[in-house]
Fold these 2 entries.
Entry 1:
Amino acid sequence: MKYLLKNGTVVSGTETKKADILIEGEKIAAVGENLPAEGAEVLDLKGKLLFPGFIDGHTHFDLEVAGTVTADDFETGTKAAILGGTTLVIDYASQDKGGHTLKEGLEKWRQKADGKCSCDYSFHMSIVEWNEETEREVQDMIDEGITSFKLYMTYPAMMVDDCDMYKILKKLADCGCFAGVHCENAGVIDALIDEAKKEGRLGPENHPLVRPDTLEAEAVHRLLVIAKEAGAPVMVVHLTNRKAYEEILRARAGGQTVYAETCPQYLLLDDSVYSQPDFRGAVYVCAPPIRKKEDQECLWNALKKGEIQTVATDQCSFTLEQKALGKDDFTKIPGGLPGVQTRGTLLYTYGVKAGKITSEQMCSLLSENAAKLYGVYPRKGALLPGSDADIVVLDPEKESVISAKTHAYNTDNNPFEGFKLGCVIDKVFLRGHLAVENGELKQEKLGGFIRREKNQM
Ligand code: DUC
Ligand code: ZN
């Protein structure tokens, strides 16, 4: 199919300009003026902003958490993603503990995703056990196009100790790759949970109290000390607060390469959400928890200064019934929030329209930087001749309101319920296919597995 997108405003990480885009098949054939319309369906996009398809480098679909499974799997989750302008999700495949291989983990996650996705998809590989075979398998993963990894400093089923952290980071650096790391101090969190339970503090308002910012900052500090010894670049995923951010700045000032990711919930919500009545606080239980207003301000400033490279979602959704598994004990509430459908519209409304970041910065945070970090640039993350025709058409004049009544997730709750949006996602092209039109999904399950190159940042 051939499309000529006329009169739109094309956004990149460095400029915003009026230009037409010619799509031929799955690719962008040309960007410019007076492009030939022969044989093309012509769409007049006057007044619309055209972004490269958004990339969400942090999703959890079809994931077992706290004795249940996320409400959204790859089918429902990627429908929500593409409706929100995300054309590539990078989910987490995981090795299982107990002598299992990375290959088994990848096969398991390919089975969950293959044939079900409405946007393109890839995986980071979570390494939870380190031995000679795992070490050999790192290259096998790279050969399969899995070029980024994940490590946990919390969660018993996933976490690695400092010794293995050092060895893994060093190996990944030798291979030209890096890991995203979930930074929280597991031991002290356990102690604080024990205290809360002994004192009979069992409601969701206790969740942020047992996972304070200091314990995230301590883990970031420790990670960065280990990474320095290993000579390894590293990414801090879902950064939430000022103290942890300052650890990153300190390490960078010492010459280290440290990437940072944050998420809309840490930019737009504050910890008062945990005190909502009638167990509503459970909706917001996620790890790390939502922090204070001052932390939001710090993160926005870091985005403005380009000190945070990407905004992902940590999408991990549960129904109210699932959240109620922790009705009598907040530590049993499955942790996670949905977010893939509203990342772009929230960032545009509360970032660009509010004057906190520019459209170009939004493009870097959602598309360009993510494409470079995860080795798909300029195939993705750019509107250039030869790039995949993954294009988000955003209407900055229309308004909408986020509601669980209308969202596409398989859940009955939305952490951004009632948030006003000063834009809508009007159309989304996925590799030249008009998948979303007038905000509605027109073509589903067109997503394919994307093999990635190494970090290009
Ligand atoms: N945090 C969550 O809240 N859920 C899933 C994984 C994570 O790190
Ligand atoms: Zn996560």
Entry 2:
Amino acid sequence: MSISPQQLQLLITTSLESRRNAYAPYSGFQVGSAVLGSNQKIYGGCNVENASYGLTICAERNAVFSMVKDGCRQILAVAIALPGGGPPCGACRQVLAEFGRDYPVYLIDSETGSVAAEWNIEKLIPVAFRPDNLSNPPK
Ligand code: THU
């Protein structure tokens, strides 16, 4: 499964622009993310920290929740922007896995704006706990 070069460029730009709004006064580590939904719209997210440190929310989950809030429940691709280009945390992998299978996850180096690595959600979280693992899966 792949996306067009134009969609990838927009995904990268959105992740970088979202990162600029990151609220990370405690860690000083800014992260941006962008999600392409099956409705062809792109949703951005940034990390938002809190004085009660554990309440911090990651950039990826903010982007996914924004997509769901807009009525879309299918991810086609994800971009994550941070210095050097790094992978999503375990909690974000689990949330990303809820809304699609086998889609690309682009790790963007925020210093250069280019793709540092291309992953896939199945490789990032193999054997994820999924909705159909529940005894009463949602319809
Ligand atoms: N962070 C993200 O936004 N996404 C990740 O996948 C890993 C970590 C944020 C959380 C925190 O605000 C900062 O990066 C340092 O961990």
